[in-house]
Amino acid sequence: MQRFGDYSNVSLNKSSSDKRIWIHAVSVGEINAAFKIIEALFLIMSNINIIISSATTYGFNEAKRRILEAKRFKRKITPVYAPLDMPSSVTKAINYIKPDILAILETEIWPNLFIKAKKAGIKTVILNGRISADSFKKYLTIKPLIKYILSAVNTFSMVGKKDAERISALGADKNRIIISGNAKFDFLNLIHSSSIKKEIMNLFGLSEKLPVFIAGSIRGEEADMIFDIYKKIVKEIPETILIIAPRHINRVEKIYNNAKKKDIKCQMRSDIDGKKKKREEKAVIIDSIGELDKIYSAATVVFCGGSLVPLGGHNILEAAAWGKPVCYGPFMDDFAEAKKLIEDAGGGIEVNNKEELAEKVIYFLKNIKKAEAVGKKAQKALTANTGAAEKHAKIIYDLLV
């Protein structure tokens, strides 16, 4: 129903004096960034109601969870599923929600939504805007269309200089582009706590003395590489625990079978609850969604995937937030800003192949103090770059007043 713009089953807070802000965030990561912006918004104005939409079930459920945690203003936030970007669905959604502001997280370009919002007199803003190298190349092939769509946007609040340059090259008005930083930094800087780490350590039956290698957001052939590396590791450090988290859950069974072929005994995360169902194997495959950022807390050293294969990399800052040394491959195009941030601080470790990765991981597992020192540098760099959520919130405020 909602995907077709029918929100008749949704009760919106309809105070005549409140401004209504529709924030769209695709999935879990964007939802978390959105809530940091929402928190900042409520600090500078109270007469607002928020409708937060997501395109995925995971994102929708995360929004509901975050709303329950929001004590002061949870009654002023309503979660919905985003409408399909079809003229009829978008028109119905706009007519029912009637937002004063439409805010899109990252750079989700929805042609019908943007154009229909402009025709309805709704101000549109892109928040935490970022454009990957791959997306930029694709958009360039249809630049006239993209330029027309972007003309409907009032303000582009971009993450960094490169993102600002790319959105400008696609036809966005330079006078409407602002660089505000990454609100995900604000969220990541707050997630690490001793209670969360204790919870994860208990779940997996770990101790501070036990070396733990976590390979997160693994894609393509990287799983086989990690298993080959792990076999090298246990020859030198037999007690090492491996936790491997594929980027896509539908690959779990294949990864499990590949581990068996390499004579590595694995256990699924879903078979562990830390109580009756204990971790019994030294290798664990994560077959759940939304836990990886917390699981990083248990690591001695981390590898962030999608980077030893040409897939653009993944968010290395999730591990950096816990003060962990983070290794990654040469293919980090989609997270170049994050890479530069921790490398400039001396907290990032780039490797060119699985042999170099094995060498670095073994080094850090044998030199715990060095691992901690490198991780702290990355964490400090992240902490020093917070505050973007407030800048994004201020842009919405300025558009409203």
Textual characterization of the structure:
The chain has 401 residues and is α/β, with parallel strands linked by helices. It has 2 domains: 2-182 and 386-400, Rossmann fold; 192-383, Glycogen Phosphorylase B (Rossmann fold), CATH 3.40.50. It is built from 17 helices and 14 strands. α14 links the parallel β13 and β14. It is globular and about 65 Å long. The mean pLDDT is 93.
Topology readout:
Elements: E1 19-24, H1 28-44, E2 48-54, H2 57-69, E3 77-81, H3 87-97, E4 101-105, H4 111-119, E5 123-129, H5 133-140, H6 143-150, E6 155-158, H7 161-169, E7 177-179, H8 183-191, H9 194-203, E8 212-218, H10 222-236, E9 241-246, H11 252-261, E10 266-268, E11 283-285, H12 292-295, E12 301-304, H13 317-320, E13 326-328, H14 336-344, E14 348-350, H15 354-366, H16 368-383, H17 388-400
Parallel strand pairs: 1-2, 1-4, 2-3, 4-5, 5-6, 6-7, 8-9, 8-12, 9-11, 10-11, 12-13, 13-14
Highlighted features:
401 residues; alpha/beta; Rossmann fold; seven-stranded parallel beta sheet; 14 strands; 44% helix; globular
> Can you tell me the CATH architecture of the largest domain?
3-Layer(aba) Sandwich
| Helicity level | 40-55%
Anisotropy-based shape: globular
Give the number of DSSP strands.
Answer: 14
| Structural classification | alpha/beta
Summarize the structure.
The chain is an alpha/beta fold. 44% of the residues lie in helices and 16% in strands.
